[in-house]
Amino acid sequence: MRIGILTLPLHTNYGGILQAYALQTVLERMGHEVHVIEKKRQPLSIPIQKIPFCYGKRIVKNIIGRKCPIFYERKYNREQPIIRQNTDKFIKKYIHIAEYDDFFDINESEYDAIVVGSDQVWRPKYFGQNRNENAYLKFAEGWNIKRIAYAASFGTDDWEYNSKQTSECGRLLRMFDAVSVREDLGVDLCKRYFGVEAQHVLDPTMLLVKEDYIKLFEAANTPKSNGNLLCYILDETEEKTALIKSIAGEKGLIPFNVKSISDDINSPLSERIQPSLEQWLRGFYDADFVITDSFHACVFSIIFNKPFIVYGNVNRGLSRFISLLNMFGLKDRLVSTVDEICNLKSIGYEKVCDKLESLIKQSKDYLLQQLS
């Protein structure tokens, strides 16, 4: 079967790239021909009518001492290929991309099925507020194909759709042959707002085993990490810094991270280049302990059987973490203060692995059944 995967754009998000790679790999191992559907990247630009206002605002910021590139778009378009060079290399090597100027350029004859997911593909601010209905295959309306959602995520505890989006996306979702979501809350949201029954399944990255990921960084001859306490923090705060310091001191570990300061436009370009996917994966392999506020870093800590704690990231959606951790009886790994780490018990990974094996079978059976 010819299958298209529709997910979020593959840029520099490690979890987003790896979930697409994992789902593609699982489907290919089932014997399908798989491509990940991507819209062509367009250069960043400002609408002509807004240029005087935007440039004027930036000039004022520089006058009052707030450093800001006046020609930001030019700087962005020049620097992004450099910042993304390592992640782009992985995408080019391992992910089979089908690129289009617009979703409506896709022809019905190209695919027998389209799988929507995973990641926060149903979160409007990530997929696109004005075109969110395409995450529900608006562009494929009327096509004679299978429509399947696999581990799609709304990404947050709150309902972010307006009434028009709720009505239209619900109408489109009711045309799907099968719907599954990544979080248990997603099951409730689908029922409550769309009137659709959804199944709770694993994130695609968990359908592969750690040996699959080890092969990736071994093939790239990835050097060993320069520490044994992996700290992968997306939103740095004083509290998280204190937590890292506390655990490093208590356990006698050396902190290290695998990320860049890619969003700090005033930093040297060399410091903004994203480390490779392989180096990120190697970080979990080398770590004796992991501290993170990232959903997928939490996932890979479990895959690699590492002791970890995840710092609650309210702004990025707590339900994702709670749902994942509850599946494995690990909710106590979610903390929000340094004091909460004092009474943490060790993780019984034998029990966790048994549960994971069972969930992998259920999730793969779902895909096999829907694509038969």
Q: Element order, helices and strands?
A: EHEHHHEEHEHEHEHEHEHEHEHEH
Biggest pleated-sheet summary: 7 strands, parallel
CATH homologous superfamily (4th level) name of the largest domain:
Glycogen Phosphorylase B
* Low-confidence residue ranges: none
Oligomer: single chain
Q: Span between N and C termini?
A: 9 Å
Strand order of the largest sheet: 3-2-1-4-5-6-7
What structural class should be given to the helix and strand makeup? alpha/beta
Radius of gyration: 21 Å
Give the topology, please.
Blueprint: E1 2-6, H1 14-29, E2 33-39, H2 51-63, H3 72-83, H4 85-94, E3 97-100, E4 113-116, H5 124-127, E5 146-152, H6 163-173, E6 178-181, H7 184-194, E7 199-200, H8 210-219, E8 229-232, H9 238-251, E9 255-256, H10 277-286, E10 289-292, H11 295-303, E11 308-311, H12 318-327, E12 334-335, H13 349-370
Parallel strand pairs: 1-2, 1-4, 2-3, 4-5, 5-6, 6-7, 8-9, 8-10, 10-11, 11-12
